Amino acid sequence: MMATETGSERETFELAKKMGEEAAPGDIIALTGDLGTGKTIFAKGFAEGLGIKERVNSPTYTIMQQYDDGRMPFYHFDVYRIGDISEMDETGYEDCFFGNGVTLVEWADLIKELMPENTVWIDIKKDNSKGFDHRMISIDSGEKK
User: Fold this and answer.
1) Which of 20, 52, 91, 134 could form a disulfide bond with 130, CB atoms 3.0-4.6 angstroms apart?
2) Can you give the residue ranges of every domain in the chain?
3) What pLDDT was estimated at residue 98?
């Protein structure tokens, strides 16, 4: 388990960008944290690290967005609106999780039963006592929650 702090959206973005630059095919990133903690900022930075040039938005209503213009496919899930875990079957998530790209799942704790063992879990928490944009980011690699 590794923990790091960021003091701005830019710092969170840059941390994620560095992780995207180091990502390899088959990597699965699970993002957790409350609303407004910076999961989508993290996803945008991660995508930039993969070389994605398209605008990255949280796919809250579509559940999954695929980007192919980087150095490998990027599958960005937002499962916040999943009412029942069986709804994931309709997304084709297994092809993404076990494909040749990188998968990032926002709100992954809602589908933790489906997350593979090699998932990197990233939890983002705000700490308003240290400033509005202060984040504590915990990274736990490869351990199922």
Assistant:
1) 134
2) 2-135
3) 93
